[in-house]
TrEMBL record:
Known catalytic reactions: a lipid A disaccharide + ATP = a lipid IVA + ADP + H(+)
InterPro entries with a match to the protein in the record: LpxK (IPR003758), P-loop_NTPase (IPR027417)
Keyword line: ATP-binding, Kinase, Lipid A biosynthesis, Lipid biosynthesis, Lipid metabolism, Membrane, Nucleotide-binding, Transferase, Transmembrane, Transmembrane helix
Pathway recorded for this protein: Glycolipid biosynthesis; lipid IV(A) biosynthesis; lipid IV(A) from (3R)-3-hydroxytetradecanoyl-[acyl-carrier-protein] and UDP-N-acetyl-alpha-D-glucosamine: step 6/6
KW Transferase (keyword) present: yes
Chain's role: Transfers the gamma-phosphate of ATP to the 4'-position of a tetraacyldisaccharide 1-phosphate intermediate (termed DS-1-P) to form tetraacyldisaccharide 1,4'-bis-phosphate (lipid IVA).
Assigned protein family: Belongs to the LpxK family.
Record: residues binding ATP: T63, V64, G65, G66, S67, G68, K69, T70
Protein name: Tetraacyldisaccharide 4'-kinase
């Protein structure tokens, strides 16, 4: 399904796909009417955004699919800590069935909290709460943890939460796709929304005027199942001839391209749908016992049943120092005022 949608929204579509997109345009109008009405309710005060007692940074996108939000959140956590802040994170917890809010603790299975929250906490040990209602998640986070700034993982369209800074993340290769709103295209909001955010980060490729280039740099390969005891010294990565690569992220081809750039050749590459709940049977059916290479986001879903020859590749977001300076300066200014806004509403 994800492959079909990607071809419809992002690829240089055939005549059949273009005709299908045009046929869906009336539904785009309905989607626009619903979202525009919702924004209007906030603008005229019928609905109100809740301001938190600490600054809130929203990291999100206006397109469906992976753009690099999770590496950006991890980057922000580390950046804010270097500047003396005590960040906490809230997120939806995509694909997890629960009521209210839930704290995410290190080691919790991805099936209980979502793959992205599990990955963020595993990497950073940041205080984190998930919940469909970001305002409730923020209140729970502030009540349970000593944090002085909140990062909202996704939530650009969650206008009930007032925000002090908005970061829009764009996939540099796919950008806005065919430019249509859902369901004919990938846009959750019109391209005008980019003009309302504080910063636009472009993940790879070239950025345009007013945008900041973000590059994901590959770190060292890590075993999905860390060796124990004397085995620690044996955890040395090398590519086996029959290795296979898997990726269950928004843009799997980005991971496969990274392998090519690293000079790694695999026997097979298999893309799962984003957030696919990986099982041992899923991977065995593809690998048949061979070495498996995967993303960090996939690895957190495999920790309980991983084999010794499964490896994942962490990536780190790198952005120009000038962006860091501008972000921190703007944050300090907003913090002194302690007055949120409703960007884009």
């Amino acid at each position: 399904m994800q492959g079909f949608v990607n071809r419809l929204w992002y690829a240089k579509a055939s005549v059949g796909y273009r005709l299908l997109a045009l046929a869906l345009l009336p539904l785009c109008g309905l989607f626009y009417l619903v979202t525009a009405t919702r924004r209007l309710l906030f603008r005229v005060g019928i609905k109100s955004a809740t301001q938190m007692p600490v600054p809130v940074i929203v990291v999100g996108n206006i397109t469906v699919g992976g753009s690099g939000k999770t590496p950006t959140v991890i980057y922000l956590i580390e950046l804010l800590r270097r500047h003396g802040y005590r960040p906490g994170v809230v997120s939806r917890g995509y694909g997890v069935d629960f009521n209210g809010v839930k704290s995410v603790l290190p080691g919790m299975p991805a099936r209980e909290v979502g793959d992205e929250p599990a990955m963020i906490v595993a990497r950073t040990q940041v205080p984190m709460v998930i919940g469909a209602k970001r305002v409730e998640a923020c209140h729970a986070l502030l009540q349970a943890h000593d944090v002085d700034i909140i990062i909202s993982d996704d939530g650009l369209q969650h206008y009930a939460l007032a925000r002090d800074i908005e970061l829009l993340i764009l996939d540099g290769e796919r950008r806005f796709g065919n430019g249509y709103l859902l369901p004919a295209g990938p846009l959750r909001e019109g391209r005008w929304r980019q003009q309302a955010v504080d910063f636009t980060l472009v993940n790879g490729d070239e950025c345009q005027e007013g945008e900041w280039l973000m590059q994901l740099h590959a770190a060292q390969w890590q075993p999905v199942k860390p060796p124990q005891g004397d085995g620690l010294s044996a955890a040395v990565f090398s590519v086996e001839p029959q290795a296979v690569a898997i990726a269950g992220i928004g843009n799997p081809q980005r991971f496969f391209n990274t392998l090519n750039q690293l000079g790694i050749t695999t026997q097979k590459q298999h893309a799962f749908d984003d957030h696919h709940p990986l099982t041992l049977a899923d991977i065995d059916a593809i690998a048949c016992g061979a070495q498996v290479l995967m993303t960090e986001k996939d690895a957190v879903k495999c920790r309980e049943f991983a084999k010794q020859n499964w490896w994942y590749l962490p990536v780190d977001a790198k952005i120009a120092p000038q962006f860091e300076q501008q972000l921190i300066a703007q944050l300090q200014q907003r913090k002194s005022v302690q007055q949120g806004n409703s960007n884009g509403v």
